[in-house]
Amino acid sequence: QRILRLAEMCRRLETEEEKVLPFYPSSLAEQEQENARRVLEQPAIEPLALALQDYVGLERFWKRFNKAKLEEKALEQARAALADRNQNLRGLLQQYLAGVAINQKMP
User: 0.70 exceeded by the pTM?
Assistant: First the structure.
């Protein structure tokens, strides 16, 4: 019940792009996609593969979860880069202000 409620909440929070294009583009080459398609068409024999068929519905959730985590990491890196740039700019500003103070002391 809880998972179904969360899935419904996620559907309501989808962006228009996610509603129109629910599938993410594949990063596999055409040959790799063909190989994957061929493997997926074969019937599952191993116990783990049979158990995973019960969780196919969660695949979309995991794709979105992974996408959100990647975006979070990218934002963390961007924030760290901006913090470094900010620190550098503060240092340059301090040097400039120190130079202006020295010039004002010298008549």
Answer: no
